[in-house]
Amino acid sequence: MLVVRAGLRQPLALYGEGLAALGIDPARLVLAQARDAAALLRAGLEGARCPGLALVLLESEGPLKGYDLTASRRFVLAAERTQTPVVLLRHAARPQASAAHTRWQVSSAPSQPLEAPPGAQVRPPGLPALAVEALRWRGGPAGQTWHLQWDEQHGGFRDATGTSDSGSAAPSGAVVSLAALRTGAATGGSSPAAA
């Protein structure tokens, strides 16, 4: 797995034990700090062209100079050719046109409190939860939102409600299992590129 970062004001540190708990071997993780947006895009494209990677994750904050329809199309073509999934995380950035197969908006969501232990007066906070909206999904149900909750037993997020906000069940592939990263295989679904 290749992680390339650039322009982050307060980058989050990756925690080796946490990655291991998810089944991701920290020794198989390649971290790169790009000096600017152009270097981030070059490194990401080279990673996307490498069929031996389980995932290419690019992370930036604010506007990403140089990321336009042409650049995003290069990523899509490289990802399709090698079946190497590419994910671009853009923090504090406005949506913009791209050739990506999918575009998602992810935000925190209220968790469901756990059952209180016998004799306790306060219920403990629930497991981490996310609101995930498919803003664009080529050939899929864009515009739907799912409430996902962490499933510690299976090492991934699951649909907490069983349905999206429009009442339909979450489609296969809407929630990506971490098993693909654990085994080094490409993730399932029809689209290897997302932004």
How does this model look, in words?
This protein is an alpha/beta fold and 195 residues long. The protein has helices at residues 16-21, 37-48, 69-82, 179-183; strands at residues 2-6, 30-33, 56-61, 86-91, 102-108, 129-137, 145-151, 156-159, 193-194. Helix 3 (69-82) links the parallel strand 3 and strand 4 (86-91). The chain starts with a strand and ends with a strand.
Task: Work out the strand percent.
Answer: 25-35%
Helix/strand-derived category reads: alpha/beta
Beta strand count: 9
Low-confidence spans: 171-192
Average pLDDT confidence is 82
Kindly report the oligomeric state of this protein: single chain
Shape: globular
Give the distance, in angstroms, between the N- and C-terminal Cα atoms: 17 Å
Which value, in Å, is the CA radius of gyration?
18 Å
The helix content is 10-25%
**Physical arrangement of strands within the biggest beta sheet:** 2-1-3-4-9
Order of helices and strands: EHEHEHEEEEEHE
Largest sheet: 5 strands, parallel
**Can you count the helices?**
4
